[in-house]
Amino acid sequence: MTQATDMRPSVPMDADIIIVGCGPAGMTAAIELAEANRSVIVLDMQPTPGGQIFRNLEDNISQQSSDRQALLAALGPAYRAGADLIRRFRASSRIDYRPLTTVWEVRPDGTVGWLRGMDAGYLRATTVILAHGAMERPVPFPGWTLPGVMTAGSVQTLLKAGNLKPTGNVVLAGTGPLLLLLATQLHKLGVKPTLIARTDRFSDGLRAMRYLRRNGLLPVVKGLGWLAQLKRSGVRMTSGVSDLAAEGERKVEAVSFTVKGRRVRQPCDLLVVHDGIVPAIDIPNGAGLALQWDQTNASWRPRTTSDGLASSALPPDLQPERCVVRITGDARRIGGAEATIAHGRLTAQAILAELRKGDGISSKSQQAVDRTLSVRPFLDAAFPPGLSAKLPDDNTIVCRCEELTAGALREKIRAGFGNMDALRGETRCGMGPCQGRNCMITAARLIEEDRGACGSTPPVFRGRPPIRPLPLGALAGLTGLDPSATELLTLEDKPEHDVEATSDVPAE
Q1: Ramachandran assignment for 243, one of left (phi > 0), alpha (psi -120 to 50 degrees), beta (any other)
Q2: Are 160 and 166 in contact (CB under 8 A)?
Q3: Where are the alpha helices (DSSP H) in 38-94?
Q4: How far apart are the C-alpha atoms of 274 and 430, rounded to whole Å?
Q5: Which contacts (CB < 8 Å, 24+ apart) does range 413-420 have?
Q6: Integer Cα distance of 446 and 404 in angstroms
Q7: Nearest CA-CA partner of 103 in 42, 14, 25
């Protein structure tokens, strides 16, 4: 193992690099670093490598049943393309792959808290790569918590992981390439969507044409192919919808929306919603890393250099000598499989250059990143946020974990709880199992609404570990503790001669 030179010398390193996430970006970075004789630990929540994009690919390929072959055909060659990457990842003896492992803390100095079953502890490395991926944009709307309302990503996960297909009347609503891709995949599997209700408009596509570049033509052609397939199949599609609502008592029974000034109601058994994909910021925010607001996508993303180096936003007295965290893949910027692979490779080359290994970032790698991300401005303009464009009304649930409505949060904000942490402490918004991943953006926008500051950079909850639920029994048995970090700093406060002095301390 390489001993860090800029960290506490008494703390041994467990590896040269720890990678969080085993999708395309994480696997690519791990392979590059391992081939350069660096020791790598890869932590991932899933049971097999692949991330969301190549989820369960090994098992789906190994099965010869007609159902699995039909599934592979529906998911397309882009899904099967991950097989070689996974094979190379598995073949590397210098990669310590640890599946079913949840990361609940990351520190800018290279410390990572992990949990597997009831075992938990800390690992340390000279560099940490966050390749934990993206998430679907949270969209609270009337009825979104009803059984039978799912996101497009969830439906695709069920397809890949369990070959589970929806039945009955399926309506898809929202915007983005994933919505059209999923509709095409479902139709190939024999599930013809009843309706695709798109929030984007034809005019968005026309405005986006000015961002179209030669390198971005292939993805656009692929998307036009999906649209043509759906049209030939007779799948109804409407665009420019707004004011989506799911209706039903015990489960979703219908969806309603406004289009061209008219209210439309469509009975359905399953409502699939999607409003685009955004970087998952829970780990960077919990690590105290700097974030920036992406106005075009109405989302936060980590602030990094082009090769993924993050920066700490912690107060000076809490900052390490150097932030050793890099962020790559969709966790840094949404780009899809090819872009995440390209940036994972570039990030690994940057780390090797920092370690005085290798030749630095190659022009080929840089060109691959530029090429694969060149379509992003077009997609951003063609598929702007739709379902989340308007803030929810007072009756709509915002925090699903704590069942808090927008009206309840607005009332507390008007009563003076006008910053994120005060609102969290007063209402428990963001304190449930998801730890704010779904409600934080809406809570922040409600505060901005009260301030009359819509359009500025929304505030965030102060991140603090654990960012995932950590059983008390696992916490009690933590391994890998840093001795210097566990010193009792309050010894000097102990009363002398068993006489305890008291003082009045105003409560904050």
Answers
A1: left
A2: no
A3: 57-62, 66-75, 77-80, 82-91
A4: 22
A5: 413/446, 413/447, 413/450, 414/450, 418/447, 418/450, 418/451, 419/447, 419/459, 420/444, 420/447, 420/459, 420/460, 420/461, 420/462
A6: 13
A7: 42
Q: Give the span between the Cα atoms of 47 and 314, in whole angstroms.
A: 33
Contacts of 44 (CB under 8 A, 6+ apart): 20, 21, 22, 26, 51, 97, 98, 99, 100, 101
Q: Are 297 and 100 in contact (CB under 8 A)?
A: no
Contact status, residue 53 vs residue 75, Cβ threshold 8 Å: no
Q: What is the DSSP letter of 236?
A: -
Could you tell me the mean pLDDT of each successive run of 10 residues in the chain, 508 residues long? 47 93 98 97 98 96 94 96 97 97 96 97 97 96 97 97 95 97 97 98 95 90 96 97 97 98 98 97 95 91 97 83 94 96 98 91 96 95 95 97 97 95 95 92 94 78 91 93 61 46 36
Identify which of 133, 82, 131 has the alpha carbon closest to the alpha carbon of residue 351.
131
Can you state the angle between helices 66-75 and 177-188, rounded to 10 degrees? 150
Per-residue pLDDT at 498: 46
pLDDT at 373: 95
**How far apart (Å, rounded) are the C-alpha atoms in residues 278 and 295?**
12
Return d(Cα 41, Cα 15) in angstroms, integer: 6
pLDDT of residue 506: 35
What does the pLDDT read at residue 117?
A: 96
